[in-house]
């Protein structure tokens, strides 16, 4: 009896079945309901024009990238008052960044807070949040530029008092740089317009991504102590701030939303090494907060349970299939062709559906991401699971060196 082959076939078929159910439900929940608009579309107060505090944490950012970020905030088509808090988190290149800070010092909307040493993104955010006074707080990463109407679109969603947080649609500003940035841009489209859009149908986006996320200040202040003192296995947690804050919002009874029309373009890694470091950090954050999210599932729609189960159990089944496949090759000198065919077929179906929904043939090329997932991301996720108590940002010190060598702006 060929045990590795049996395990391989069973695990890949279970993965295929779970994935087919999950992806079908996901797509269905992003489509308009029959006879009317999507369920996630609500009636908003178009005269709602609250004051907004925009927080831009900055650490060793490329000056040109930061300038573009701040200029896009200053050019927002929004009739309400905007105050911008730029928090320099002990940047080593502060002399270069001071040129950008001085360019905005005469604009009364901008205020620069210079921290004497690096304390981490979360504490840099909190320093600005504690001094904020507006109804809404918008976090914008320093390598992100906003579309002119992004704030207006986000505020429209926040006019519903039951909404505690909302995120915009993310795209890669450096999409055309390399093959990897093109793949990541498609990955972001799928994450936003499939995963987040389906979760938003039930007012439960599980992660309002940091590059462009808006929060209700009254809710944020109630959760600030929990956010600041997040611990895991007795150690302070210093990353995954966007996911953790979103989970806290849901736990407090607020809705979290996705706003497709609020577009934010962010710099993404253009090489594999920084990309994998980023994915390792995100994987640790996801696994940590999934443990917290499990307690919320009984209060949320059953689709969210499917979402959490499929994303976590699906990766496990795929990993088992990969390991058993390699064992089959090593022990029996036969290849797991059935598993290869199933995975290839699923990849082509998913990419074809994405190409049709996005009206862009480039999504057919996203099939390359399957190889990256199988050969690189699965091992990264396994390593993340084994090192959950490691709170190293990974991309802080090493990414600075990479950026200096290759003139690549930071992507956190």
TrEMBL record:
The chain crosses the membrane at residues 304-329, 335-356, 363-384. The keyword Plastid does not apply. The keyword Membrane applies. Residues 54-220 form the Glycosyltransferase 2-like domain. It comes from the Bacteria. SUPFAM superfamilies: Nucleotide-diphospho-sugar transferases (SSF53448). CDD domains: CESA_like (cd06423). Its main location: membrane. Keywords: Cell membrane, Glycosyltransferase, Membrane, Nodulation, Transferase, Transmembrane, Transmembrane helix. It is found in: Cell membrane. Belongs to the NodC/HAS family. This is N-acetylglucosaminyltransferase. It comes from Paraburkholderia guartelaensis. The lineage of its organism: Bacteria, Pseudomonadati, Pseudomonadota, Betaproteobacteria, Burkholderiales.
